[in-house]
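User: Can you model how flavin-adenine dinucleotide sits in this protein?
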Amino acid sequence: MRDDRTEAGATHDVIVVGSGAGALTGALVAAADGLDTVVLERTPLLGGTSAYSGAACWLPGTQVQERAGLGDSTEAARTYLRALVGDAGADRREAFLRHAPELVARLESDPAVQFVWQAFPDYVAAPGRMDAGRSFVPRALPQEELGDLARLVRPAVDRDRAGRGHPGGPLVQGRALIGRLLLAATRTGNATVRTEHRVTGLITGNGRVTGVEARTPDGTVTVRARHGVLLAAGGFEGDAALRAEYGVPGSAAWSMAPSTATTGDLLRAAVRLGAATDLLDEAWWCPGTQRPDGSAAFTLGLRGGIVVDAAGQRFANESLPYDRMGRALAAARTPAHLVFDSRTGGALPAVTVPPADPAAHLESGVWVKADTLPELAGLIGVPADALTGTVARFNGHAADGTDPDHHRGEDPYDRFFADPRDAPGPNPCLVPLDRPPYYAARVVLSDLGTKGGLRTDARARVLDARGAPIPGLYAAGNTSASFTGRVYPGPGVPIGTAMVFASLAVRDMAL
Ligand code: FAD
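Assistant: Here's the modeled complex, given as structure tokens:
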């Protein structure tokens, strides 16, 4: 990595704005191709939400699935995406499918970037789905391999929110992905990474984007690009005003992006230049368990409990993939609560990121506990007869092993997280609530980032209102509108698509 300061008026071949998985993939590909590349990151840490993530990459038909003997193929993924999204955005879908295997082969040709398949089912029952999943994750990265660069990688959510660094041991998940891409990019000798550079404006000349303006602790600087500017700076999930303007439900306070990191600076800057936008009310949704400080924890993988609305009724299959459960929550009468019994010893029967400390949640009142269901109903403000009726009906379903109301346990995804030891009945996803005391945890609509943004083409070029590319300007990841529209096809789609379109962007710049 070169020096960490910006000389006023610095010029590079490629500017990459942001430092998530898409941004660093773009930077690595550009730098490995011999282009002088600079990464400008707003915060003191690299990786954004990508560093928080599980780093599942949904990149179908690659050598990773082949090594795992999965029988995945580009054709199967095409069938699946067509079934879910139709042919809107078909040009970007085809670019994604074509480039994914090529990109992964290229990344893995560098020993610093290695992946391994990890079981996690695709999210929707449709032709071409892989029930065991097709996404893969980076191998863990010993911190020694990264050396001093490790301190630049954003830690996991819980440690980051508490202002703590990485624990000992190797970097895993999103930290490993960011660490590996960073390592490979800096080893090329062509990549410079500058933190605390908040890009707020785009510079134009001769009818194209030629650079950016960034605020730094030392004042505003101008950085110029010979070939192009890639905007890969996340969405606008952290900006309450933009959320309100575009009608994004939920709340900036409940979003999972690093606090204050992603506020739509580049969306605003590109729109000022005439860029077109799409899907601005959309996000990668998830249920969030409310935390004592008012934030939320990404909640998935329920293996017990039921979720009830403000009327004390179930409104969805609680084991749905998190984006679909989030959509159900957005349509439900709120507040909603996850109601569970004491068979998990007072712990939430679900995975949460960050993990929940039951005592602190109970003390703050975002969780409540009672010896009887009517008492619990009183504490969460739902009609007592409705809650007791809902639980009695659900317990009957648990005994029968079928859920005629919401079909919980019928899909491979539902069963992925279930533990048959929790359910005495025939359906491992239907665990009765019959062991007092009972608990209720407040559930809110959270997100993993907005997924609407700048309209782009199959080469990741930002388009104007007439559909023409704005020369020199590219976007990937949550800065751009996803070609998957209002569907979240499977684990790793946000990161996988960000990586592919960032790579396609810098490839186009090199032409
Ligand atoms: P980010 O990764 O958020 O990066 C944006 C970066 O741009 C940030 O570092 C930000 O500080 C910087 N930035 C913002 N504004 C500016 C500016 N003006 N100037 C310079 N820099 C700026 N997705 C998957 O695909 N697979 C998973 O396994 C997965 N697991 C997840 C688990 C958790 C707990 C969470 C929270 C999310 C998960 N997601 C996962 C979702 C995924 O992490 C995000 O949707 C995705 O990483 C967003 O990538 P991005 O590049 O668009 O933005």
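A couple of observations from the model: The longest strand covers residues 219-231. The chain has a mean pLDDT of 96.
User: Helpful, thanks.
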